[in-house]
């Protein structure tokens, strides 16, 4: 099977057809599309990328993962609904996904350098593809991504997923934020502000996590780095 890392959609489809020993006409019949459409797709002469329903037909006919075709067509998965099923030794976390058009890669950081407002290249662990809509709403340079390693927000974002944040964005009560605490520890929490304190609340199935409380009558040793706006499981 061809690798999706070094090819495009048309090339991937052509390699799959050749691997099975089919002609274009035979493959088109198995997929349920016209030979002319399939030839245009392979030769990149289509006016636009296929829609998700067409990619579903292609995947079924070619017997390849639909997710491979979706990625190659410029879609990226985002978390639609997180489901947690309790088990005897913890919980099983799963998420349904929705696909959004996407073309822009974004660096993903594994950790945040202490006290430095910009992220250092040596902490980049990969890239993720972000939806075009995020760029229109927040601006490409205003976004950054972190891999969620802990489970303090497991009710909302599963460990291992990629969370995307907007830096210059108003944060309101109830928003989830990336926060730098004590100048060195990056954490993901829900923001809450009262007349007396700022509270960073976890939302975890693990009871060990407690809110971080910063009274307003003392110096607040935390800094909000960005507002959570998107999550995906895709790390390249």
Features:
ten-stranded mixed beta sheet; elongated; 236 residues; 6 helices; alpha+beta; disordered N terminus; single chain
Describe what is shown at a glance.
This protein has 236 residues and is an alpha+beta fold. Helix content is 22%, strand content 36%. Strands 1, 2, 3, 4, 5, 6, 7, 8, 9 and 10 form a ten-stranded mixed β-sheet that branches.
Care to count the β-strands?
A: 10
N-to-C order of helices and strands: HHHHHEEEHEEEEEEE
Unreliable parts: 1-6, 113-117
Radius of gyration: 22 Å
| Fraction of residues in H or I helices | 10-25%
Principal-axes geometry comes out as: elongated
Number of alpha- plus pi-helical segments: 6
**Portion in strands:** 35-45%
Structural class, by secondary structure, is: alpha+beta
Main sheet summary? 10 strands, mixed
Task: Output mean pLDDT.
Answer: 80
Span of the ends, CA to CA: 19 Å
SSE inventory with pairings:
Blueprint: H1 9-19, H2 24-31, H3 35-42, H4 52-62, H5 66-72, E1 75-87, E2 90-109, E3 124-131, H6 132-138, E4 143-147, E5 162-166, E6 176-181, E7 185-193, E8 197-201, E9 212-215, E10 222-232
Could you walk me through the main structural features you see in this protein, from its secondary elements to its overall organization?
- It is a single chain.
- With 236 residues, the chain is of the alpha+beta class.
- The chain is 22% helix and 36% strand.
- It is built from six helices and ten strands.
- It has helices spanning 9-19, 24-31, 35-42, 52-62, 66-72, 132-138; strands spanning 75-87, 90-109, 124-131, 143-147, 162-166, 176-181, 185-193, 197-201, 212-215, 222-232.
- Strands 1, 2, 3, 4, 5, 6, 7, 8, 9 and 10 form a ten-stranded mixed sheet that branches.
- Strand 7 and strand 8 (197-201) form a beta hairpin.
- Mean pLDDT is 80; it is low at 1-6 and 113-117.
């Amino acid at each position: 099977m061809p690798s999706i890392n070094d090819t495009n959609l048309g090339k991937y489809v052509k390699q799959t057809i050749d691997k099975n020993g089919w002609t274009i006409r035979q493959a088109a019949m198995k997929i349920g599309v016209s030979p002319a459409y399939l030839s245009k797709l392979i030769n990149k002469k289509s006016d636009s990328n296929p829609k998700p329903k067409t990619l579903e037909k292609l995947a079924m006919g070619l017997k390849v993962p639909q997710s491979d075709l979706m990625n190659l067509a410029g879609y990226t998965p985002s978390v639609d609904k997180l489901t947690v099923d309790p088990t005897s030794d913890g919980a099983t976390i799963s998420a349904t996904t929705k696909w959004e058009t996407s073309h822009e890669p974004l660096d993903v950081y594994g950790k945040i350098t202490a006290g430095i407002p910009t992220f250092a290249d040596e902490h980049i662990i990969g890239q993720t593809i972000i939806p075009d809509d995020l760029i229109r709403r927040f601006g490409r340079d205003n976004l950054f991504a972190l891999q969620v390693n802990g489970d303090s927000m497991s009710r909302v974002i599963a460990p291992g997923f990629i969370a995307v944040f907007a830096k210059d964005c108003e944060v309101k009560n109830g928003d989830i934020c990336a926060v730098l605490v004590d100048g060195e520890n990056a954490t993901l929490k829900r923001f809450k502000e009262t007349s007396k304190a700022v509270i960073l609340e976890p939302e975890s199935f693990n009871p060990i996590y407690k809110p971080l409380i910063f009274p307003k009558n003392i110096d607040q040793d935390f800094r909000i780095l960005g507002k959570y706006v998107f999550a995906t499981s895709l790390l390249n």
